[in-house]
TrEMBL record:
GO terms for molecular function: ATP binding; metal ion binding; phosphoribosylamine-glycine ligase activity. It is an enzyme of class 6 (ligase). It comes from the Bacteria. Its cofactor is Mg(2+); Mn(2+). InterPro entries: ATP-grasp, ATP_grasp_subdomain_1, PreATP-grasp_dom_sf, PRibGlycinamid_synth_ATP-grasp, PRibGlycinamide_synth, PRibGlycinamide_synth_C-dom, PRibGlycinamide_synth_C_sf, PRibGlycinamide_synth_CS. The gene is purD. It catalyses: 5-phospho-beta-D-ribosylamine + glycine + ATP = N(1)-(5-phospho-beta-D-ribosyl)glycinamide + ADP + phosphate + H(+). Pathway: Purine metabolism; IMP biosynthesis via de novo pathway; N(1)-(5-phospho-D-ribosyl)glycinamide from 5-phospho-alpha-D-ribose 1-diphosphate: step 2/2. Residues 125-337 form the ATP-grasp domain. This is Phosphoribosylamine--glycine ligase. It comes from Stieleria bergensis. Keywords: ATP-binding, Ligase, Manganese, Metal-binding, Nucleotide-binding, Purine biosynthesis.
Amino acid sequence: MKAFELSMFVTLELAHRFMKVLVVGGGGREHALAWKLGQSPKVREVFVAPGNAGTASEATNVDISATDVPALVEFAKTNAIDLTVVGPEAPLVAGLVDALEDAGLRAFGPSAAAAELEGSKVFCKNLLRTADVPTADYQTFRNAGDASRYIKDKYPEIGDPAPVVVKADGLAAGKGVIVCQTREDALEAIDRIAAQKEFGEAGNELIIEERLMGQEASVLAITDGETIISLPAAQDHKPAFDGDTGPNTGGMGAYCPTPIVDEEMFEKIERDVLVPVVHAMKRARKPFKGVLYAGLMLTNKGPKVLEFNVRFGDPECQPLLMRLQSDLFDILVAAADGRLAEIGQLDWDERPSICVVMASEGYPGSYEKGREITGLAQAAEVPDVKVFHAGTKLDEGQVVNDGGRVLGVTAIGNSISNAKLQAYTAVQKIRWPGAWCRKDISDKAL
């Protein structure tokens, strides 16, 4: 290599090494993303908008709402941000990635059109049917009256078992899905979603689908619309209480990998779910770039899709990134630039990881904020543990709860049982009035 060519190579490499990244969002997923991106030797500075008390200690928080698209674009332009990573679904559906790209900025995440895969459950189900991807049988409705008549015709007697799931079509912060046991449960769910509009405009349409039985699993993949890199399977815990009882939540904990998804099943999910959906989105002229998250039920007839999300799951993101050894910045930039094929296989820590969510008293219902959290420093001293903040903020220098899901205590260990022990050892050191968590995260794997 000639001297001037070497000099140019070094200059370009140095220019590439010191990048500025903006992570949009303020939950545990965004704390994990900021933490992992900050480990890249190519990243000079990480900003998080709006962030939380945890991101404040590892990045620079920016007081901009995750859904304030004009302000986020202006910040990215003014600060010469090299990569914006959009965490939550709402700004993706609102078109943040489109706005950033229109401004000549690099962004990781799907367009608003592609984000409809999560933004509309009706669109998602219809696409799955078109692509012949296995999913539950379903019916869609535009009003409570038609939906109620359907249930009454199908289950005519009071007290009839009605193993169905009623879902609001739009975004409902993970709460617009109601699992029903009886005819009365279903009618009440329809009333809440479509008549009382408990979840707002998300209930302008609704889906009633058969209830699938089995264990749930999540398989996430990063794609640039052409190449797909699948991530190890994880298992979330949606119901609030031990033994998968109680109301659905945004997720009370997760672990990775999950033994129930063996190599044969993983390949089947890639072949029968992920690849057909990417192709179907391209045919629908909504090419997908970003994280494709398949929420699956592993039935006795094989894996079936419960839902698709268009971003990293929270809390699945935390144990996944705890194990990732490849440079996350390189991966996301390659996906954003349409050259994911250059990345090759990712490197993973072979040890399993588990995330336990600590929540506020009353969640997923109403809860009090502003309660001081203690023991974080002691928890951080537990070996192989990282405490990711979700619903926290700083109040006069003190960390207080500011959401329903407050912390994601994440540990890695030589076995799932060892990772669980480390995570719950750290959990026991953290206190605030009303703090609680499930005690059985990862037990299904054991």
